[in-house]
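Researcher: Good morning. I'm working through a list of sequences from a screen, and I'd like to move beyond sequence-only analysis. For each chain I'm collecting a predicted structure so we can compare shapes side by side. This is the next one on the list. No need for commentary yet; just the structure.
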Amino acid sequence: MNNKLIQKSLPYIYPYNPIDQRLFSRIKRGLINYAQVKANWSMPIIQAWIKKQKFSFIWREQNWSCNIVVSGYDTTHLWVANEIFIDKVYDLSLVPFIPDVVLDIGSNIGLFTILAAKQWSQSMFICVEPHPTTFSFLGFNLEANKIEATKLQCAVSSNNEIKFLKNEGAVFQELSDNGDLDNRVLTVSLDSLIPDLSDLKLLIKMDIEGSEYEVLQKTNLNLSDECFFFIELHKGDWSLEWINEWASKNGFTFFQTRRRDDAIDGYLKR
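Model: Good morning. Structure tokens for this chain:
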């Protein structure tokens, strides 16, 4: 076997796995990669079997570890794991208090909640995720790590209504006013999820694929003094202008931490 063929085969036989570098875990990641191949050498029967499986990996920090359960069908689960544990897009040391409530909006498969629960085991966790398959893996991950959380299969919008999910993949879901009946989703307002306590210490993570503008602009928020947001924006320079204006009006300051094209990560702090 020549070197060129070996290099071409590595992503499917023994790929690099930044999350879990053990031998079998790298092979499992290779299987997930192989299940997505669209070429004349792929074997659809085997790929279909892989896509129906759940795969587990282990992430280890210095003094703790967690289990990560992902789908063989959706490679974006592993992208999210890389973002949270490798890229460390959410730096919990920035949060200036121990939260009473952690509100994970756009929970995906639950990895931010796992990270926060390792830091603040006594906090209350509320996970909001609309996509049915992704929601099931949210449950698998919380159960695998013995984390108690309130799980809501719905989306956050400016009003309580019915909308539709569009796009494929766990990280690309957006809300639409029109769509297939199979993609209907209940939406709830952000303020309906926040306990009405004046001294509440609240941490919100919001990654809702562009709906953040409508949610923050139109929701009647009465946030306590001790409130902190991690937020992902999705409309480039316009996002920065908008979030800085919103922050100024609502007693926050926005700090940008990362940018990838039009996607901007940052946090809001009082």
